[in-house]
Amino acid sequence: MAQRLVVIGAGMASGRALEELFALDPDAYDVTLFGAEPRGNYNRLMLSPVLSGEKTYEEIITHDAAWYAANRVTCRFGEAVTAVDRARKVVITAQGETPYDKLIVATGSQPFIIPVPGRDLPGVITFRDLDDVNRMREAAAVPGAKAVVIGGGLLGLEAAAGLRMQGMEVTVLHLMPHLMERQLDPAAAYLLQKELERRGISVRCKANTHAIEGTDKVEGVKLDDGTVIPADIVVMAVGIRPDTALAKEAGLACGRGVHVDDRMVTSDPDVLGVGECVEHDGMVYGLVAPLYEMGRVLARTLVGEAGAYRGSVMNTKLKVTGVDLFSAGDFAEGDDRDEIVFRDPARGVYKRIVLRDDKVIGAVMYGDTADGAWFFGLLKDRTNVAEMRDMLVFGPAFQGGTRLDPMAAVAALPDDAEICGCNGVCKGSIVNAIKTKGLSSLEDVRAHTKASSSCGTCSGLVEQVMAMTLGDGFEAKRNKSLCACTELTHMDVRRLIKSKELKTMPAVMQECGWKTSCGCASCRPALNYYLLCDWPGEYEDDYQSRFINERVHSNIQKDGTFSVVPRMWGGLTNPSELRAIADAAEKYNVPTVKVTGGQRIDLLGVKKEDLPAIWADLNAAGMVSGQAYAKGLRTVKTCVGTDHCRFGTQDSTGLGVKMEKALWGSWTPAKVKMAVTGCPRNCAEATCKDVGVVCVDSGYDLHIGGAAGLHVKETVVLCKLTAEAEVIEYSAAVIQLYREEAQYLHRMYKWIDVVGLDHIKERVVNDADSRKALADRFYYAQRFMQKDPWAERAAEGVHAHEFKPIAEVA
Amino acid sequence: MERVMSEWVDIGALEDIPVRGARKVRTPIGCVGVFRTNANEVYALVDACPHKGGPLSEGIVHGRAVTCPLHNWVIALDTGLAQGADEGAVPTVPTRLENGRILIDRAAVTLRAAAE
Ligand code: SRM
Ligand SMILES: Cc1cc2nc3c(=O)[nH]c(=O)nc-3n(C[C@H](O)[C@H](O)[C@H](O)COP(=O)(O)OP(=O)(O)OC[C@H]3O[C@@H](n4cnc5c(N)ncnc54)[C@H](O)[C@@H]3O)c2cc1C
Ligand code: SF4
Ligand code: FES
C-alpha cells in the first residue's frame, strides 16, 4: 500500500517538489495537500504582472484540478494546518486530524510589517498573495487614488510599477541610500531610479517611516523628518520572514528557518522541509531557483534515492516591463578583486563585472542585460576568463569588438546642452559652425562661435565636440584627467554637471562614463564640492566624501586629537569670549592654547568625544566655528584702522567684520583668506591674501589672488572702490565666480592663472548685471551654508555617530 | 600560548556606521576601527596606520580600502596591507554580519593583551 504523504502549504516549492516526486514514482505516496489560501498552486512570481494588468490570474495557475486528479492529490485548499502532533503523526486543522507517514513543511514566508503606529489600519496591504493583489487593484480603480509603497527592493518596486500602470499616483519610500541595495550598486540604482521617475513614480531614499496616519483607514504616511505623504493605500514591502510558527510549535529545530539537512530532512526523520520556510547551512532563500533545486532533492529523498542539496548561487531580475536589470553573485569592491566597468551614457547602459583570480564572482547590469545569462554561466562554472578579459564586458558576441569610448559623455549630450557657460554656446551651434564653415582648429571655432573665448575652461569639451564632428580629421589634446576613474578633466566634468543637470554623484559617474563604480578618494571630494556649489539647496552634502577635518569640523592632529578654533570676527574679541575660551580650556584639559597666524585662538589637543561638549560651551558664549579646517572662508585679518591708528584712512576693522559676517560659511574650491588693512603700510598683510582690501584716502583697493603658503604670491588689484557696500558686493561676486569656475583644490591665484585677470574684470568689474547676478547666486547659496556646523552637532545631535565609539569590548 | 576560543561579540547594528564610513570600538588592545563599505560589508582593523599611527577610522573609505587621514596612505580593509608603493600592515580583526548586527572576534582583540 502507498504511504501517506501530507504537505503543508500549496505554494511554489511544494508544487515543484510534487512534480519531481511523481516523475520519479507516481505511486509511492497518497498525497494530501493543505493550503491556507483558498486556491491551488500558482506562480507567485507572476503576481506582479497580474497587478499591472499584463496577465490574469488564470494565466498564472501552475497546477489545475485536472493535474491534482490525475496524480490523485487530495486537495484541502482554504484549510490551514493549525498544529502537528509528531508523536501521533497527525496534522490538525479546524476540520479535524489527518494522519501521515511522511510530512512536508512548505509554509513559505510571512511578509514583514514594520512596527510603526498605524500599521493595523485598513488600507495597509502586503504583497504576497492573490488577495493582496486584488485589494491593490480595487484601490487603484478609484480615480486619483494614491499609493505609498514602503520598501524599494524587488517586491516594492514591482508593486510600485504595477500600481502606476493601474493609474495610481505612487511614491516609493526606501530606508537605504539607494534602491535595491542588496542587488544593485549605486550606479545601477541611479539608472533604475531615473527610469522609475520618468514613469511618474516618485522615489524617496533615506526615508524612514515614522507613522502611518489615518482615523479609520489609511490617510497618509509620516516620515521621520515630519513630511506627510497622502495615501489611500500603503503597500508594505520591506522584507519577508520564514514562516516557522507551526514547525516551532511542533518542536522541530529552527533557526531563522526550519533546519533541514542536505537531504531536506528536518530534525524529525519523518518530516521534511522545502522552500522559503527552511534554513539550510545557515542560509534562507527568497527566490525560486533554490527552491526548485531543493524540490528535486526532496523528491529523491522521499523515494529513497541519493541526492544532496548544496546551497545555491542566485541571480536577480526585476520584472518591470521595459526595465532591464540583472545582478548576480558578489559585486562588492575589493583589493583582491578587479572590476571592469562599462558605461554608455547615451543609451543609459551600465555594466560591471567583478573578477577575482581571473574568475567572474559578480555582475551588475542595467539597460542591456542580454548577456546576463552568459555571465551567470561563467560565474557558476568558475570559468577562467584571463584570455578574454579585455573584451569580457562586451559579452560573448563581441570578443574582438569596440573599446571604451572616452568621448561617450560628450557624444551623449543633446544639441541644446551648453558647452561654453560664459558665452552661452551650446553643442549644436558648435557642430553646426564646424560643418557649415568647415572649421578645423580650436582658434577658428573660438573666433566663429565665441565658445571657450572667455575663461577658456571649456576648451577641452569644445575640442571633444570637434573630434566627434570631424572624426579622424581632428585629434583632441589630451588634458590631464581628474583622476584614474575618468578621461575627463576637472573642467569638463564641471561643465557636464551644469549642462546635463547632474545632481547626484551616481548621476555624474554614469553620465560622464566613470570607469569605476563609486569613485576614489580623489574624485569624490571634488565631485561633492562641485555638486554642492552648483545645486545649492538641492544637493545633499555627502560627508563620507569629505576629508576628516571637514567631516567633523575640526583639524585632526598627529596624535588623533583635534583642534578647536572659534571665529573671532575680524580678529576682535572681548573679555567674555576670552573668559569662555579660558574656561573651556580648563574644563576639557586642553594642553595647548595658541594664538594663530590668523588672529584668533586655537585650542589644540581636544579629544574627539569632547568636541560636541566644548562646542556647546563656546556656542553658549556666542562663538561659532572658525572653520579653520574648511575649503571655505578662514579668517578676515584686520588692523586697528581709523579707530586707533594715526595713519588709518578707513574703518578697516569694521569693514573686516562686515566682510566676515557676509562671507563666512561658504564652501569654495580651496581655502579663502582675506584681510582688510587700514593703509598701504599693510599691517594686516592684505597683499598676500586671496581677497585683500587696502584702504586708501580715496576709498578701497580691492586685491585678489595672493597667498603666502607653499608659494608666496602677491595680489593683483582688481579695481578701486569708494564704498564699503561695494567692497562687499564685489568680493562676493569674485568669490562666486571662483566657486563656479575653479578646479577643486586650486587656490584663487591658480584659477586666475587659468582664466586670466581680464576675464574676471569682464565679469565682475565692467558688467554690472553680471556682477549682480554673481552676488545674488552667492547670497542664495549662503542661505543654506551659513549654519554653524558646531551648533548643529552640539545642540541638534547631527552626526552623533562621529563623536563616540560604537562599542567597548572588555 | 593558551588558545582562546573565538567568541563573537555584538558591537552594534550595521546602520550605526554610515555607508562608506567607520566607527571606533574601544578594546583591551586599543581602538579598533570598524568600517562599512559602499557594498555594506564590514571590516575591522586596529585603528593605527602602519605609517605613523594615524587613526584609520577617520579616513575616507573607498572600495575596500581606507585612505589614512594623516598622510594619505591607502590601507586595504580586508588584509590590512598598505597599497601601492607604501609598505606596512595593520592587524585585521575578524568580523561577521548577522541579521544586521555586527559581531567581532573577542579573541582577536584580547589575545595579544593576554600574551604580554
Ligand atoms: C593654526 C595655524 C598656525 C598657527 O598656529 O598660527 C595653521 C595651522 C595649519 N595650517 Fe596654516 N595655519 C595657520 C595660518 C596659516 C597662514 C597665515 C595666515 O593665514 O595668515 C598661512 C599662509 C597664508 C596662506 O595660506 O596663504 C598658512 C598656510 C598653510 C598652508 C599652505 C597653503 C597654500 O596654499 O600653499 C597649508 C596647507 C594646505 O592648506 O593645504 C596649511 C595648513 C594648515 C593645517 C590646517 C595643516 C593640516 O591640514 O592639518 C594646520 C592645522 C594645525 C592644527 O591642527 O590646528 N596652512 N597657514 C594658523 C591658523 C590660522 C587661523 O586662525 O585659521
Ligand atoms: C509578488 C512577488 C514576486 C516575486 N518575484 C520573484 C521573482 O521574480 N523571482 C524569484 O525567484 N522569486 C520571486 N518571488 C519569490 C517567490 O515567489 C518565492 O520565493 C516562492 O513563492 C516561495 O515558495 P514557497 O513554496 O516556499 O512559499 P509560497 O509560495 O509562499 O507558498 C507557501 C504557501 O503555504 C501556505 N501556508 C502557510 N502556512 C500554512 C499552514 N499552516 N497551513 C496551510 N498552508 C499554509 C501559504 O498560504 C502559501 O500559499 C516573488 C514573490 C512575490 C510575492
Ligand atoms: S607651518 Fe602650518 S602646516 Fe606646517 S607644521 Fe606649522 S602649522 Fe603645520
Ligand atoms: S599615519 Fe597614516 S599615512 Fe601617515
Q: In a few lines, what is going on in this structure?
A:
Chain B: Residues 8-104 form the Rieske domain. The complex is a heterodimer of chains A (810) and B (116). With 810 residues, chain A is an alpha/beta fold.
What does this structure look like?
The complex is a heterodimer of chains A (810) and B (116). Chain A has 810 residues and is an alpha/beta fold. Chain A folds into five domains: 3-109 and 242-302, 3-Layer(bba) Sandwich (FAD/NAD(P)-binding domain), CATH 3.50.50.60; 113-238, FAD/NAD(P)-binding domain, CATH 3.50.50.60; 490-546, no CATH class; 549-620, Sulfite Reductase Hemoprotein, domain 2 (Alpha-Beta Complex), CATH 3.90.480.10; 633-785, Sulfite Reductase Hemoprotein, domain 1. In chain A, 32% of the residues lie in helices and 21% in strands. In chain A, the strands form eleven sheets. In chain A, strands 3-2-1-7-19 form a five-stranded parallel sheet. In chain A, strands 9-16-10-11-12 form a five-stranded parallel sheet. Chain B has one domain (8-115): Rieske [2Fe-2S] iron-sulphur domain (Rieske Iron-sulfur Protein, 3-layer Sandwich), CATH 2.102.10. Chain B has one helix and ten strands. The radius of gyration of chain B is 14 Å and the shape is globular. Chains A and B meet through α17 and β39 of A and β1, β2, β3, β5 and α1 of B. β39 (807-808) of chain A pairs parallel with β2 of chain B. Siroheme binds at residues 555, 557, 563, 565, 594, 596-598, 600, 602, 626, 628, 634-635, 671, 673, 707-710, 747 of chain A.
Present the secondary structure layout.
The complex is a heterodimer of chains A (810) and B (116).
Chain A: E1 3-8, H1 12-24, E2 29-35, H2 47-52, H3 65-70, E3 73-77, E4 81-85, E5 90-93, E6 96-99, E7 102-105, E8 109-111, E9 124-126, H4 130-140, E10 146-150, H5 154-165, E11 169-173, H6 186-198, E12 202-204, E13 209-213, E14 220-223, E15 228-230, E16 233-236, E17 240-242, H7 245-249, E18 258-260, E19 271-273, E20 278-280, H8 288-302, E21 315-317, E22 325-329, E23 338-344, E24 349-356, E25 359-366, H9 372-381, H10 408-411, E26 418-420, E27 425-426, H11 427-437, H12 442-449, H13 459-470, H14 490-499, H15 505-511, H16 523-534, H17 548-552, E28 555-556, E29 562-564, H18 575-587, E30 592-595, E31 601-606, H19 611-620, E32 633-638, H20 641-644, H21 652-663, E33 672-677, E34 691-696, E35 699-704, E36 707-708, E37 712-713, E38 716-721, H22 724-741, H23 748-755, H24 757-766, H25 768-785, H26 789-794, E39 807-808
Parallel strand pairs in A: 1-2, 1-7, 2-3, 7-19, 9-16, 10-11, 10-16, 11-12, 18-20, 32-33, 33-34
Antiparallel strand pairs in A: 4-5, 5-6, 8-17, 13-14, 14-15, 21-22, 22-25, 23-24, 24-25, 26-27, 28-29, 29-31, 30-31, 34-35, 35-38, 36-37
Chain B: E1 8-13, E2 21-27, E3 30-36, E4 42-46, E5 60-62, E6 65-67, E7 74-76, E8 92-93, E9 95-98, E10 101-105, H1 106-115
Antiparallel strand pairs in B: 1-10, 2-3, 3-4, 4-8, 5-6, 6-7, 9-10
The structure holds siroheme (SRM), flavin-adenine dinucleotide (FAD), iron/sulfur cluster and FE2/S2 (inorganic) cluster.
Siroheme binds next to strand 32 and strand 36 of chain A.
